[in-house]
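RECORD TYPE: protein structure
NAME: DUF4440 domain-containing protein
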Amino acid sequence: MDNISLKEHLLQLEEELLKPDVRTSPEELSKRLADDFFEFGSSGNIFFKQDCLGEGGIGVRNMTLHDFEIHPLSENVVLTTYRLFDETKMVHTLRSSIWKRVNDLWQMFFHQGTPSSCTHISKEDTNYDG
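PREDICTED:
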């Protein structure tokens, strides 16, 4: 898979995790989250896969994703970064996820949300060169 189609595929997976039918389904979440998944939430709390699979899943909110980029770390591991606007809570967050290819399927291994007043991120802002 080339980087363009990989970027499109991972964007699709990230966007699926924003949809109510996925967010409230333990089965759908289980497919997308690695068994050793953990998250540092924008709330400051730490979540593990089992925390996400309970009744109601991870909850329903109206969110939009912007400025999506991928940063391949290896052939089977990719960091994604983006900005998220939570229209339910009216807050902006910076997001990062680490996706691992497991048995030819991409699963989220790690996720972090960081509160931000930032309303735009350019690709140049996410490229660290030293």
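COMMENT: The longest helix spans residues 3-16.
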